[in-house]
Write a structure and sequence with these properties.
mainly alpha, Serine Threonine Protein Phosphatase 5, Tetratricopeptide repeat, Beta-clip-like, Methane Monooxygenase Hydroxylase, Chain G, domain 1, 23 helices, 10% strand, histone deacetylase binding, Znf_MYND, MYND-type domain-containing protein
Length: 653
């Protein structure tokens, strides 16, 4: 095994950015303790708790560790009422301009400024010198007006309610109730719209001409009402055959099995057909990459349209008040003031997930139980780790624990010093265990970004975060997976891309894929990143990459109960001899079926080009199922069909 490559791969799972200060912390500590102590003492520790205790108590290292961790302080992007007010004014100017020229362009610009105004506005009463302390309410009100002009009733209604919640005076506020009525009308909630109009009329007194003008304007708009552009957040497709009670998020079609050679893995329990949804799982914990804080909700990972901010920091946002409340009442209250410190440390996304498992838990005991169970049940490769790997992870665990101390996760402390209490040692130990299992069990979370012109042409995969999935972690790797993986928000969806017989392994792909990488490259990557060598069919038979693959096909022997594979005959009209069942068999019917299958592939491809996604999915499912009845991979057209099916499934969710 290439130890240097393994070391590089491991280091990247702790610190993704070497410019961050954590790398300096690690190198300084390693230099202080010396190689002899690292290998002969720390490297001989038999448990995670022993490593943590050594880090904080051993004189060879503890002074350096404690001294550096003493410097941990909150660092985060704070609110700015003036900046918010300035951007609100810019938004209002663009909104006014949109009534006269370049409506869509000016409204889009207005929304961008309004989003900045909302995100940077402090909470009610924090800065009374600007906007009388109501910057946030005024920003939500301004954005609601823009959203109404964009025919986004549901989003506008949410902002109007938030404006009222954060202090907007709605008593006898005629304009507010007119806007409410407009929002309800856009949502086809006419009874509520009428109630809002009547409240506005009551407050207007004799000055009802504005309300009547609004009634006439919206009556004329009803006939040509636009569909809102809001993408409603869904939970993804339903599991085929319902949920397996023994496997959270998995279908009844699959089961967890165990063998000495492969450990625990997922296999088919019943017949699985192409297109069957076998997993729809919420993560144990999932985090957004910091580079996407401005574009996606930090809680549900849906794309942001109208961000709802944290009331304290400006570094991230949520897609709705519900997501904001759920986050701020659980994990974000502990993470909020350290977001920029985390970014500055250069720590990897896996470190965020380890921390999140603790900060989202209802209490410390619950978090410790979760971390202990995960460490017990998921692969950590403890015996294959080197001493400096353990040191790096121990230091990161110590850093995260210190942030929790400063965030009062453990409640008020008697001392501001770093020296951990017994419960803090347990948490630090739990964090160290999580940093090990996450290296081998976390999933990258991605979204498919589609172009404006075509669902598929120009679409691209964008990795936005990572998550840990309890059942998802049990799927083994093959260099050509048998499932499509995609995400709905942060839910992991796995759908079969081929039929499976009972007890057949259902495999994911961990990154190295045969269509793009040769066998030697794949094996090096898997050994360095995951510490195993792959023996899947693509590796055993050394399949060429897709670019080098010819269009040859191998057929199953048509004899009953024969599992031999036969090459395409030179003469279809002549029988071929099967070496296993020793029969002369005809492949004429198999060839005929293959011709029909390839025609279905072409029809499905045409449906994709015409953006008839559901039609394409049905054609691919039927034809791929048929292919596996008569032939085996690799077959170039079938591989392309499976890749196309994956694109289609991601496109509809």
């Amino acid at each position: 095994m290439d130890r240097n490559y393994q070391k590089i791969c491991g280091a990247r799972t702790i610190q993704s950015d070497k410019k961050g200060f954590f790398n300096k912390f690690y190198l300084e500590t390693k230099q202080t303790c010396g190689e002899k102590w690292l290998q002969n003492y720390f490297g001989q520790s038999k448990s995670n708790e022993a490593r943590i205790l050594s880090m904080f108590n051993d004189p060879e290292i503890s002074d350096t560790v404690l001294g550096i961790l003493e410097n941990v302080q909150p660092v985060y992007k704070q609110k700015d009422a003036l900046f918010s007010a300035q951007n609100r004014i810019k938004a209002e100017k663009c909104y006014i301009l949109s009534a006269n020229t370049n409506k869509q362009e000016n409204l889009a610009q207005a929304l961008a400024f309004a989003n900045l105004a909302v995100t940077r506005a402090p909470a009610k009463g924090v800065n009374k010198h600007i906007d009388g302390g109501f910057s946030l309410a005024m920003a939500f009100r301004a954005r609601a007006a823009i959203l109404l002009a964009m025919d986004e009733g549901q989003l506008a209604l949410s902002d109007l309610k938030l404006a009222a919640y954060f202090g907007l005076d709605t008593q006898k506020n005629v304009d507010y109730y007119i806007q409410l009525a407009k929002a309800y009308e856009l949502m086809d909630e006419m009874a509520r719209a009428e109630i809002s109009f009547k409240i506005a009329e009551k407050f207007a007194g004799d000055n009802k001409h504005t309300i009547e003008a609004c009634r006439q304007e919206w009556a004329s708009k009803n006939a040509e009402k636009k569909k809102p552009k809001l993408k409603l957040i869904g939970k993804g497709p339903l599991l085929t055959n319902g949920e397996n009670p023994d496997l959270k998020g998995a279908s009844h079609l699959v089961k967890l099995v165990e063998s000495k050679e492969k450990g625990r893995f997922i296999a088919a329990q019943n017949e699985v057909r192409t297109g069957d949804v076998i997993l729809n799982e919420k993560p144990i914990a999932a985090c957004l990459l910091p580079s996407f804080y401005g574009g996606f909700c930090c809680h549900c990972l849906e794309k942001l349209v109208t961000p709802v901010p944290c009331s304290n920091c400006s570094g991230l946002a949520f897609c709705s008040a519900q997501c904001m409340v759920e986050a701020c009442e659980s994990y974000h209250r502990f993470e909020c003031q350290f977001m920029d410190l985390f970014i500055g440390s250069g720590m990897s996304i896996l470190c965020y997930i380890a921390l999140r498992i603790f900060t989202q838990a209802p209490n410390v005991e619950s978090a410790l139980n979760t971390s202990d169970l995960l460490y017990k049940n998921l692969c950590a490769h403890e015996d294959s780790r080197q001493a400096d790997d353990y040191l790096q992870r121990s230091l990161m665990a110590g850093f995260l624990m210190r942030c929790l101390q400063k965030a009062q996760y453990f409640g008020p402390r008697k001392s501001e010093g770093v020296n951990p209490t017994a419960i803090e040692i347990k948490v630090c130990t739990g964090l160290l265990g999580l940093l090990q299992i996450l290296q081998y069990n976390a999933h990258e979370i991605y979204q498919t970004v589609k172009s404006a012109d075509h669902i598929f042409d120009g679409s691209r995969i964008v990795y936005i975060g990572a998550g840990l999935y309890n059942t998802g972690a049990y799927f083994n790797h093959e260099c050509w997976p048998t499932v499509a993986r995609y995400f709905v928000g942060k839910n992991l969806i796995l759908t079969a891309t081929k039929p499976h017989h009972p007890n057949e392994v259902i495999a994911e792909n961990y990154g190295p894929i045969f269509t793009k990488m040769n066998s030697k490259e794949r094996q090096r990557s898997l050994r360095g990143r995951y510490l195993f060598s792959c023996d899947c069919m693509a590796c055993q038979e050394n399949w060429p990459t897709l670019q080098k693959l010819d269009k040859q096909v191998r057929f199953w022997c048509p004899s009953t109960n024969c599992s031999n594979v036969l090459h395409f005959p030179r003469d279809v009209l002549k029988d071929v001899r099967c070496a296993r069942c020793r029969k002369n068999v005809s492949l004429k019917e198999s060839v005929s079926r293959l011709i029909k299958i390839e025609e279905l592939y072409r029809e499905a491809a045409e449906a994709m080009q015409e953006q008839k996604v559901y039609q394409a999915i049905d054609l691919f499912k039927e034809s791929i199922d048929d292919f596996f009845q008569i032939a085996v991979l690799p077959h170039k057209d079938t591989l392309i069909a499976q890749l196309s099916l994956i694109k289609c499934m991601a496109a509809i969710n």
